[in-house]
Design goal:
Elements lengths: L5 E6 L9 H9 L2 E8 L1 H6 L2 H17 L5 E4 L2 H12 L3 E4 L5 H12 L4 E3 L23 H11 L39 H14 L4 H4 L12 H5 L5 H5 L6 H22 L22 H8 L5 H13 L4 H14 L4 H11 L5 H12 L14 H8 L4 H6 L32 H14 L6
Parallel strand pairs: 1-2, 1-4, 2-3, 4-5
Length: 451
């Protein structure tokens, strides 16, 4: 701890103090640290209201952990850092490395301005770009061999928690906490590192050991709900991986974490696929223009109860069960014949756990145009998916109260019970069986010719 030396710890997607290697590096290199979060206007303009409200709450929690010493400053990163460096004679700026296109370009711009960034750690157990095929050193394009390589590579144990953090006390001008309001009627999960650790403890105790069986059931609390905490770095994947066993349930959970890392790796190696087709020929497919049917999908008024429940959940809570994410994505792309980017953009607007790699490549997986994608001919049946993963209709009844009077046998196909089902619930906007055939016909048109 060099006497008199001051370092900045620039928080971005790592809003925690436990298992935080960049924070430890800053503490070890200096006598005092300046904990900093820069409000980025460009990102704020892109982000949805729910995500921003959650971020505001998370920053408050981080500030409490830092003894109310978090510097919150709105402005250009180069300008903000330059002012602080000059004012406090800062010798080092510490960060966790970022690999998504926006974050990487931002950091490159900062360094091009002459500000050296010291990178320690990242938001991943294994940094994107490190898991390579042993045969030729190229990135994996298929998940299963990636998972084997990812496990073989391994990861560090969680970093220690700092015993003491000597912070530079911020002046009033550096306490620009944002006042992002939640939209009316919206309920999101509690933010912050303590909430993340408490939720994971609860999940580990109640649901982890049955995760392989319960994770797809939409009507129960069978998933970890760690996605939002991982998005903001309130918990690190190392913390989740520590202590996992080798039984089927634990390995299934580990594989879900690996999917997040796989998509981050794919995006790192193909940075334009956050918006563009991973498989280019899908851009040539016949798509419809968004209109009334797209509006019905957005509002949860398609007439398919399982789809509508999911779409209403994302609007109300900023989160959606992973099984239903696939179902609504398939419905948009293969029943309504719309491009996946429309759905990706809607998710970006509403998800609190929005992650560019997981979102864009999750959509492309379902659409059949991603890496290691779902077979192009697979079309999720929204009726059968509901019967299988919400057999009693509990999930549907929670988010589609118009159908709460129906029995489990009736609720997935309410149109079969006649006038009793109306109750202000919309009729089906499409016939799934017919649209499935139409989707397959359009896919056949872009199928590669056999040589």
């Amino acid at each position: 701890m060099p006497k008199g030396k001051v370092a900045i710890i620039w928080f971005r997607r790592d809003l925690r103090i436990n298992d935080q290697p960049a924070l430890l590096a800053a503490i070890e290199s200096s006598e005092k640290v300046i904990p900093l979060f820069i409000l980025d206007k460009a990102q704020i303009q892109e982000a949805g209201a729910k995500l921003l409200a959650y971020m505001g709450q998370s920053l408050r929690k981080l500030d409490e952990s830092l003894g109310n010493n978090l510097h919150i400053i709105e402005g250009d990163q180069v300008e903000v850092l330059s002012v602080l460096i000059k004012k406090h004679e800062v010798q080092e700026v510490h960060i966790s490395a970022e690999y998504e296109r926006y974050g990487a370009e931002r950091d490159a711009r900062v360094e091009a301005a002459g500000i050296k960034l010291i990178r320690t750690g990242s938001p991943y157990a294994v940094t994107p770009g490190r898991v390579l095929k042993p045969s030729d050193g190229t990135p994996y394009k298929v998940y299963t061999p990636f998972y084997r390589g990812w496990r073989t590579h391994g990861w560090r144990a969680p970093a220690v928690t700092p015993k003491k953090i000597n912070c530079v006390e911020p002046t009033a001008e550096y306490r620009s906490f944002p006042d992002f309001r939640l939209p009316e009627g919206v309920e999101i999960i509690e933010a912050g590192e303590a909430a993340a650790l408490a939720r994971f403890k609860e999940f580990s105790k109640k649901a982890l050991d049955s995760y392989d069986e319960s994770r797809n059931l939409a009507g129960i609390d069978g998933t970890s709900k760690m996605s939002t905490y991982l998005k903001f770095g309130e918990i690190h994947p190392r913390t989740l991986l520590k202590g996992l066993g080798e039984d089927k349930a634990h390995d299934t959970f580990r594989k879900e974490i690996a999917w997040r890392e796989f998509y981050a790796d794919v995006l790192f190696n193909n940075p334009m696929t956050d918006r563009e087709y991973y498989v280019p020929r899908f851009a040539q497919m016949r798509y419809d223009k968004p209109g009334a049917q797209f509006k019905a999908w957005c509002e949860g008024k398609t007439g398919y109860p399982f789809v509508d429940a999911a779409m209403r959940q994302i609007v109300k809570e900023g989160w959606m069960h992973n099984r239903t994410r696939m179902v609504v994505a398939s419905f948009l792309v293969k029943d309504l014949h719309l491009e996946w980017q429309l759905g990706e953009r809607f998710f970006r607007e509403h998800l609190v756990d929005y992650d560019v790699a997981s979102n864009s490549h999750g959509w492309q997986w379902t659409a059949g145009c991603g890496t290691d994608a779902s077979p192009y001919y697979r079309v999720f049946n929204p009726i059968e998916q509901g019967k299988r993963f919400d057999a009693e209709g509990e999930y549907i009844k929670k988010y589609v109260p118009e159908l709460s009077h129906l029995t489990a046998a009736e609720i997935h196909e309410p149109w079969l019970v006649g006038a009793r089902y109306k109750n202000n619930y919309p009729e089906r906007i499409v016939d799934h069986a017919l649209e499935r055939l139409e989707s397959l016909a359009r896919l056949e048109e872009i199928k590669p010719s056999q040589q």
